[in-house]
Amino acid sequence: MNKGINIFALKYWAEKISLKKSAGQLERLSSLLAKSTIDLNPYQIQSAIYAFNSPLARGCIFADEVGLGKTIEAGIVLSQLWLEEKRRILIIVPASLRTQWKEELETHFGLKSTVLDSKYFENQINKGKKTPFTYDSIYICSLPFLYKRMPLVKKQPWNLVVVDEAHRLRRVYKGKDASKMAFALREAIEDKPKLLLTATPLQNSLLELYGLASFIDNKLLGNIYHFKTRFIDKINENPSLKNETLKILRNLVIGDAQDNFSPTGIVTRTLRRQVKEYVNFPPRNSLTQDFTPTQDEQKLYEQVSTYLQRKNIASIESTQRNLMILVYRKLLASSSFAIAPTLKKLYERLEYEISLRKKELKEETSIDFDEESLSVEEVEINESKISRGRVSSSFSDNEIIEEINELKKYYNLAKSITHNTKGEALIKSTLKVLKIAKKRNWPQKIVVFTESTRTQKYLQKILNKANVGFVPFSGHNVSEHSAKAYDKWKKEFPESAIQYSKQIAIRQALVYEFRSNPNKKVFLTTEAGSEGLNLQFANLLINYDLPWNPQRIEQRIGRVHRYGQKYEVIIANLLNTKNYADKRVLELLTEKLGLFNGLFGASDEILGNIEAEIEFEQRILDIYQNCKTPEEIDKAFQQLQQNLKASVSTDIQKTKSLILEQFDSPVSKLFKQTQIDVNQTLNEYDSALLRLCQEYYKDKFAYLEKSNIAQIMLDGKKKKFLFREEKENEKGKISRVHNDHPLIKKILDETLKISTNPIPTIKINIQQLGKQKQKILKYHNGVIYVFKLQISAVEEDEILAPLAFVKANGNFLPLDVETSKILVEANSEILSKTVNKSPLEKKELYNHWNKWKTNILKKYQNRNEKLYIREMDRINRYWDNYSLKTKDSIDKVKNELEEIKRKREKTLDFQEKRGFDQKIQKKQLRLRQLNTILIKEEEEALKQQMKEIETLNGKLELRQSEELIAITVFNLYE
Fold first, then answer.
1. Dihedral of CA 451/454/455/457: which sign?
2. How many CA atoms lie within 13 A of 631 on its CB side?
3. Percentage with pLDDT > 90 across the chain
């Protein structure tokens, strides 16, 4: 360490930056907020605070509306845990979202993760490496993959389990048989901290909300019988009590709005209308570019379509039929260039089958593939592997040969088509929207989506021919173009190049090329570009191929229609005028679902139901497969629209609003205050980092205030570091400092070990002290003691407490805490003089310290008491109603018994009396059985209740330790 260093100031700032903070304190997120590479909105930060806010909580549900960034909110939470070295994290997502999650965590939060599938998992074990899940890492996988490995998952000490698209789990209330995967998952992660993400926690029934809530806390809403009795049956029996009953449920689920101390609930939900101030979504509008296929193109479409409509097709395995026909129809609709190689692979597979039969070889097995995540792009790349299985023996050789000849005919027709009218339509729509952009002074940037890499190659040729510059993007990005873009990017952004894996860095490089190069008008991407990319600098989008899944379309549009978009978003769709089904699909998506127009596109209710209740993509495929005339197509679409309408119940929407939604006004105030608090917290954090570096490096450190850049001489070279976020287009060029930054870690590692013994002397210019100046103007010197108080119960909190004393007539007078803090944080200079003994007697010092500490501990004790009351209410509510079903059954049997006795007394018929006597005996026996069950249940309830209360008392026991970490004598001067 350099000579002349002010070890007192250095020690103070190092300790301040390193303090541990407990739940709900924004300071806990300081380093994370500084480290994040994106602008975090107040509502996203507030959600993260909510997740941390109750130390006894078992997790929470982020239920923001679509498009508000629940993934980012979850990223804040798990990033903070990672910084706190809580690093066993599991993220469960649909297979199609695994890559998106991996990239967003890495690009936005600098977190590396491992995507797991069966092949990778088995390879790790076969190679003798550590078994995944058994060591610290962020694991991303799908639920079907996880289902086979639940015992292993259950054993792990997870710090956090995140479930995206969690509405898929809400039917867990139906039991193990009805929802095997969800039931197994709930059991496996029951005692682990959890975070569920869904825009639709409640769709058709209150029981769905109960199901999701049971994942977080299986006692919060009682057992299912208690929940039905208390809420559902009560409302059904007396509708006038609905609002009152739902208010009780609301307080349990989202917390009591009247209690500002800490949320008691488990759900936080933000609506898009509540965040207009922070996320100003411009409107989206659409246009349609018609095209009419040539005679050969139409012939190819009709012949292949008719082929795919057959009930039995030799070239497609029956186990893969639905999925592969869906993919082949997408290829057929995309271009002749997309379908041609597939037709060839299909007849080659059949030819291979004939050759095997001639050799009388035994059956081969199919190549295993991840059916859940198979995309058109993956089919194109892995087609030969996917279709290697044997053809069913139910097909004769002659039938197979006949099918081979048909496929060859289709293939030859496809190969004879050298250009597509749909491609011409793309050029027309591209030039049209570029003209609109130029007229309105918009950026001339278009994102074009196709589902096929083969079509993408064709489109590259025609864009080149039309002199339209483009950047190609796919799920693999292994082209020469990608390599050049990456080499150029890593020279401009060396910090980012070091941080990211090469695969993600290439994605960043291609996006940067599109954004920064004015000659690149088009971002030509496969479906891989619909996930994880921020393209809000472009506002024009063309769907060359239109997915049938509305959520995929919304995902595409979300690349440009997102936070930071300044202009109206224009979406162009290409329509085949000869395909009536295509026309009806586009009408449905545009007019009924509202995907392409308005501020937000399709509503949460519609998108949620499409996924949860209606297999939309499969229904559309069924129409293409089974309907041949316009009348049949119309009838099928009318039925689909009726199903959509019926799935969105007005009554359930009102119920959802009553339970889950907050009034706009208090929410707006909360977000505004959060924004103020975030700015203040970051300012204080950045100032502390700056002071730490200034004290450590002294003359080697130069700070350029206007740019927030510091220059430090390291190893004889000037190196630049950033102390505040830079402009968007400069991100990644200069390293932003934070606790986890190598520069800061080095200083902290050294500084936290130093001691202020012997006691140093510093001098402070009194002019820095502002309003506090008058309080100590007449004094010339004194002493400062800095204590660190560690308080732990459910979690740990650390407080830095400077106690300053001024010398007057041989005595030391204490200053108030505020003045002490200003004094200790003022700029000071180290003097050569040191003192060996504390100026204050130990007894006097600790008398002052204990007074201050007692007041602080009272606040924590009050907090613990409130937590205790809340948790006791939860425990008692659950166990007091544990036997409710049995008690109700007893009451029911008693009433039935009394009714039988009454009837027995009335009858004069001997045989009837005998019959009633038998019934009475059965009821009395049943009553004794139920009473025995009740006694056992009440004993079990009491035992568990006592056990949980004992555990609670242990958790809430307040423990504290203290340490005198630094002392200095000070002299004041003007």
1. positive
2. 0
3. 36
What is the pairing mode between strands 137-141 and 88-92? parallel
Question: 242 vs 222, 254, 264, 659, 869, CA distance in Å?
Answer: 19, 18, 22, 11, 27
Separation between Cα atoms, residue 107 and residue 87, nearest integer Å? 18
Quick count: other Cβ atoms within 10 Å of Cβ 702? 13
Domains of the chain are 24-277 (3.40.50.10810), 306-416 (no CATH), 757-974 (no CATH)
Q: Does position 366 have pLDDT exceeding 50, yes or no?
A: no
Alpha carbons 581 and 632: distance in angstroms, whole number:
10
Question: Which residues, in sequence order, are CB contacts of 440 under 8 Å at separation 6+?
Answer: 567
Residue 313 has pLDDT above 60, yes or no: yes
Taking only the tens place, the pLDDT of each residue in 655-670 is: 777 777 766 667 778 8
pLDDT (0 to 100) of residue 601: 54
Q: What tokens does 729 get?
A: 């287009």
Q: Which amino acid is at 433?
A: V
SS3 of residue 199 by DSSP: coil
The full DSSP string for 726-771 is --GGGTTSSEEP-TTSHHHHHHHHHHTT----SEEEEEEEGGGGGG
Q: Mean of the pLDDT values across residues 99-106? A: 86
DSSP secondary structure of 787-833 = EEEEEESSSEEEEEEEEEEEEETTEEEEPPHHHHHHHHHS-EEEEEE
Look up the pTM and report it. 0.80
Amino acid, res. 764 = I
Give the Cβ contact number of residue 241 at 10 Å. Answer: 11
pLDDT of res. 367: 44
Minimum mean pLDDT among 105-109, 372-376, 861-865: which range?
A: 372-376
**Residues in a beta bridge with 973:** 765
CA distance linking residue 631 with residue 629, whole number of Å: 5
**C-alpha closest to that of 513 among 200, 717, 729, 297:** 729
Burial of residue 306 (CB within 10 Å: 0-12, 13-18, 19+) is exposed
SS3 57: coil
